[in-house]
Amino acid sequence: MSTLTDPIFHDNDKAREHLEAIRWENGLYCPHCGNADETSIHKLQGKSHRPGLFQCNACRQHFTVTVGTVMERSKVPLAKWVLGFHLMAASKKGMSAHQLHRMLGVTYKTAWFMAHRIREAMKEDVASSGPLGGEGKIVEADETYIGKRETPAKLSRGRIATPTKSGKAGGAQKRVVIGLVERGGRTRMVHINHATRDTVREVLVRNVDRASVLHTDESRLYTITGKEFNGHRTVKHSAGEYVRRDAEAIVHSNTIENVFSVFKRGMVGVYQHCGEAHLHRYLAEFDFRYNRRTALKISDRERTDDAIRGASGKRLTYNQFENAGHA
């Protein structure tokens, strides 16, 4: 079990060794040219070279363990990076930039940027992980609405949606998230601009194996698309039906609603505000932790190491946020 007294969280040399062991667990390679011949890669030592510096004789480039990762060109000490990864991976409902700023002893701006880069490392590679479900598997689908859209959706006649009588934002004024979860397995949440049969169908067919059995509520968003899957079973929430026992399965969408519950508690209680341009990274963060949850016998240390593995091959620069705004 990982504890905050572990040297990798306080000693930069230990942190660097830990990062190297994770990134190059299958052998050292050059992030510039891809050279994996360790006999042509040399570690540069001595007072004239910074710790952890390598030279690739194939391309004559220098590199460290952070080159080609979300940590590249960061001046934050490596021990603080490892601790930041751990805090983000171990906190079930997330950790705010203000909390990271206090715990890591860095400025708020630095903590905010670190948190987004760690979320980028947590993003799933959908192309390699493949669709959810499959033959004999159940995938639950549902939609939820969160926050307020920065650009309210237009109604079919071109009118801008107005608030409800209570003064709260109506569905067309909120951000839409489609949630999918393979029962007993992975989840995947996707932000879409507006919930229609076509937009929901696009999310489903891209992310769910059509051999799966789909479980949803009675929403008309799923009635037509559900026919494209191996089966489509629904529960009627409006009639007070939340679980139904059929001969083949227990029909419900409670699993994805539990995923939404953790996500919303984190967004409201921890983050409080999220710019719409960055919502996809917050979704990736919650997906990452759920897919490596304690119930699957994955420890905080293993979850942290997985996040660090995901940092390789990704970059996120501050300039990418200039037009997106902060959150």
Automatic annotation (TrEMBL):
Q: SMART domains in the record, alphabetically? A: DDE_Tnp_IS1595
Q: Which organism is the protein's source? A: Hansschlegelia zhihuaiae
Q: Which InterPro entries match?
A: IS1016-like_transposase, Tnp_ISXO2-like, Transposase_Zn_ribbon
Q: What is this protein called?
A: IS1595 family transposase
One Pfam family, short name: DDE_Tnp_IS1595
Residues of the ISXO2-like transposase domain: 131-291
Please give the superkingdom of this protein's source. Bacteria
